[in-house]
Amino acid sequence: MKFLRRRHAAAGLALVLAAGAIAAPTAPATRPPELPLEQLTMEKLPPADGLRLYLSDPTMPHLVDGRVHVIDGGAMRYLGMLGTGFAGSTTLSRDRKQIFVATTYYSRLQRGTRADVLEVYGSDDLAFQYEIELPARHIQSLPTKPLLGTSEDGRFLFVQNATPATSITVVDLPARKVAGEIAAPGCYGAYPWPGQPRRLSTVCGDGTLATFELDEQGALKSQNVSAPFFDPDQDPVFTHYQLNGTRLSFVSYGGQVYEVDLVGDKPEPHKPWPLLSAAERKKGWRPGGYELFALDPRSGRLFVAMHDKASEGSHKNPASEIWVFDVNTQRRIGRLPGEMALSMALAQGDKPRLFLLSAAENRLVSFDVSGTKLPTRPLARSAPMGETPIYLEMH
After folding, report:
1. Any signal peptide, and if so, which residues (predicted)?
2. How far apart are CA 289 and CA 318, in angstroms?
């Protein structure tokens, strides 16, 4: 027993010595030098060309956090992003040097005190410049073209309101203040007149255009209402519009083109013309989408997103095909692949390029439409962009 105790004691001593050897302190390691503090900078964007795109994305899974994605459409390269708050509407200044965002913020993100503002950013670097407080009536909806527009001379900005009563806020941009508000019951959208910097119209629910004349301070001076130019019960128009000189163009749910000349004292409507033959109508072809058509004034080409098997309520369906028309002859001259397009924008100039926003993975798809012969396949496709993008604007 003594022998065993001596063996156990020896073993215990060996373990203690071994543990002591492991725990023995080592020489301190040399401490590496601290890294220099990183200096954050704002990188300027490459100079804008005619192919830069601004893609509005209301981020519908988290609506308080909307964005505008800035994209080089030539290289299909992502350039930058702006926050646009809750249901923001955007447009560029007439000289393309500034980006306007009319939006809403709540003090507790999705609740609390409401604040409506017009934010102004530089288009060269996306840096914030200033803001103007707006009446808390700015419309909260998906962004579309007629919700925000500038007068031809760039002085006034027109903001669509809905509470749900509809009105238009007039912002004096040089003075950085709200100049006034125009009541427009039953009407929707702001359509600035070309050649008349103090005049704008709005489309009304009875098929008429209400037109407002402003004074030099931006207050309402006079107004008039046109005769109906479409039947809202039989063939309502999409609020998206294009201008061809002084001619304002709309497309209807039923596939008609409605044109109104913005000249003289009152709008002058033209006779509507059809996009569809009787056979195509019978097959169920109809226009559809959000920013669903684009117009090239130089070539006279009209690009319209069309879908087949249409039914009541399908007017927002993505495109099965893009139909191309000559507005001078009022005849279709070709078709392009639809690419499931929800919206489109046209880069004009010497080499026109059509950009489609595809509902399939939120990709941008471009077509070279500069030649007399229409292409049969896309020129380029982007990577997926954003979360729920809906509206395009060219620089």
Report:
1. 1-23
2. 5
